[in-house]
Amino acid sequence: MSEKHTKPNFSQPQVVELVQRLFNLTPSKIHSLPSYSDQNFYVAPVEGGEYVLKIMNSEDSKYPTLIEMQTCAMSFLHQNGLPAQTAQLTTSGQLMSLEEIDSGHGCQTYLVRLLTYLHGSTISKVSLTPHLLYEMGKTAARMDKVLQQLEHPHLSILQREKFIWSLSNIPLLEQYIKVLDGDPLQEVVKSVIHQYKTSVAPKYSHFRECINHGDFNDLNVLVQPDESDGYRISGILDFGDMNTGYYIHELAITIMYMMTRHPEPIEVGGHVLAGWESVLPLNEAEKECLFMLVLSRFCQSLVLARYSVTIHPENEEYLMITSRTGIHILSQMWELGKEQVEKVWFQSAAQYSDKK
Question: DSSP character for 87?
Answer without folding.
Answer: B
